Amino acid sequence: MLITIVAFIFVFSVLVFFHEFGHFISAKISGVKVYRFAFGMGPKIFGFTKNETEYLVCLIPIGGYVKMAGEIGQEDADTTTEVPEDQRFDKKPLGIRALIVALGPFMNIFISVVLFSLIFLVEGIPVVTNSIASVIEGGPADQAGFLPGDKIIAINSAKINDQQEIAEIISKNVDKTLKITVDRKGENIDLYVVPKYEEDYQKGMIGIEFEVTKGKINIFSAFREGLFTTGKVIGLIFSSTTEMISGKVPLEIAGPLGIAQMTGEVAKLGFLNLLSFTAILSIFIGLFNLLPIPALDGGHILLLVIEKLRGKSLEAERINLIYLIGISIIMFIFIFATYKDISRILFNK
User: Fold this and answer.
1) 297 and 237 inside one domain
2) C-alpha to C-alpha distance for 91 and 97, rounded to whole angstroms
């Protein structure tokens, strides 16, 4: 239970801090006056003021906010001091305002790239070798006399040491006899095997699995792998969401309880696994915040688009009503997700 609580706080602290930091740093760079940058919610634990911005750490380490001059809903008794127009959010060009709003979720996605990159830098990347890890019983390779530990060094007398090239040659030679030379404990042995077409994989195979090792990479390669992995996760999220909407797969959604439970389970598997989970969840948070739902960053951007089309902003009363509708939608999602969490936990549904 303690591991779950600590891991949950850690994960959401990372997600919230960098999301709000995205809003904060873009506002600062854009010259918008920032009254407050708060990490956490509830009573203040400690804080300080620098360059007219109050920095706070609050008691409940889940949540946070950035309070800017000229942002709807952010003006109160503490922020009634007259602010020059060039320091107000609502007086900035539409592009600048959209950037400030979008930098929150984009920062979530960027942090995912950083976390994945860090994992690859520490762990390395999987490298498939040309050494055989296992031989499927009864398969062509088993019948031909291949053994675990054999290292493929040539096919039809042509030297080869690239696993991908070996797989391609085998795949292209269905029902043809191949002479495969292996290094078995320092001795070169020629084995003859006929690849068979596997319907499940739609290619020719001989029934072997290659050894996989971890290859160390430099920081630039790690960043490239982190960027690629983030893009792959985003693609999987879109494809799975499309399948759920179309009814091809059941609707699956997790709320706070479900996420907390998953966080605790992942934390037991090690810190790097927790970082990987945090990266994936950060992508979800970033994409969810970009949805055009009022009260989310995507909804705010939608209002800016409407303002651009109308040539003027909506009245404050209409905006407040739209935000109320957005909050209602989010609450419905929250309640539905919590219901699904409880059903999974109590009834395994």
Assistant:
1) yes
2) 9
The number of folded domains in the chain is 2
Residue 204, strand partner residues: 197
Neighbouring C-beta atoms of residue 23, cutoff 10 Å: 25
Residue 77 has pLDDT above 50, yes or no: no
Instruction: Round to whole Å and give the CA distance between 232 and 324.
Output: 35
Which residue range is the domain that position 333 belongs to?
Answer: 2-30+92-123+219-347
Mark which of 215, 245, 266 sits at the end of a domain: 215
Residue 206 phi/psi, 5° resolution?
-120, 0
Whether residue 8 is predicted with pLDDT greater than 90 in this model: the reply is no
Q: Is the dihedral of CA 331, 333, 337, 343 positive or negative?
A: positive
Within 8 A by CB and 6+ apart from 236, the residues are: none
Q: Which two tokens stand for residue 171?
A: 């795949």
Does 134 have pLDDT greater than 70? yes
Judged against a pLDDT cut of 60, whether residue 349 lies above it is answered with no
Q: Are 22 and 119 in a shared domain?
A: yes
Convert 150-179 to b/e letters by CB count within 10 Å (16 or more is b). bbbebbeeeebeebeebbebbbebeeeebe
Give the amino acid at 37.
Answer: F
Overall average pLDDT of the 89-98 stretch = 89
Q: Are residues 16 and 104 in the same domain?
A: yes
Phi, psi (degrees; rounded to nearest 5) at 217: -135, 160
Q: What's the mean pLDDT when you consider all of the chain?
A: 85
Q: Are both 234 and 314 inside the same structural domain? A: yes
Start-end of H helices in the chain: 2-29, 94-123, 140-144, 163-172, 219-246, 256-267, 271-289, 297-310, 316-347
- 287, part of any domain: yes
- Residue in the block written with tokens 């990266």: 279
pLDDT of residue 325: 84
Between CA 27 and CA 72 the distance in angstroms is 15
pLDDT confidence of 252, banded at 50, 70, 90? low
